[in-house]
Amino acid sequence: PAPSFDRHQLKVTAPAYAMARALLDWNARNPFCGTCGQPTLSVNAGTKRVCPPTDFGKAAESGSIGSTTTEEPAPPYQRPPCSTRTSLSNLTFPRTDPTVIMAVLSHDGKRLLLGKGKRFPPHWYSTLAGFVEPAESVEDAVRREVWEESGVNLARVVIHSTQPWPYPANLMIGAIAQAATPEDEVIKLDNDPELEDAKWFELDDVREALRVGTSGLGEPAGEGYKEGNLRLPPPTAIANQLITAVVEGNFLGGITHAPKM
Fold it and tell me: How far apart are CA 105 and CA 114, in angstroms?
């Protein structure tokens, strides 16, 4: 069986795992210099890669005796010139891809927009998400992604929190947003075929799902869950934290919430 972790253990172990996972993937995907095409060398415990001017590996390939097996080491192979060695750009650093993920409120603050991916289990919904485009602000990325995936137009966008997601190198930037008018809340799924479904859920239903209906993909819901009701991501996911902030925290302020159960 899979090991179980409490929330404190996850807070301690998850950052270390995330960094290791991201660095291993980045090093595996970037073995060559993007300028000259020669193999790069991993340095600083895998946190950087460099295009060196010489290469002992090439000397071994040419038939020379390696420096570790003789008192007279073979001279290293001199690599062709590379422009990265003439400036401070010689070091290559791991990439991070910014991704937005957002909890979207209706104009009156009484409903929450959630989407169902095509691989999600029945009744399992989550917040919408997508990549930030080049030269795009986080706020504009939130508005664009929500419109592309659901057809809903947003007004306010407030950044809430972030979470590393090393699959392979994402930084999830969590936001809470709100539509301005009822006309902006009309759902249209024909802009982007990514979602199987998108719905507005009453906050009471969302609150109940947070209580008994959270789980990871492929895991059973909590005790007390009634089949057919809404299901949500687990507390370890930033999607859950955004939803909780909307339902319990009055994060946007000044909106009218449905009364608590």
Answer: 10
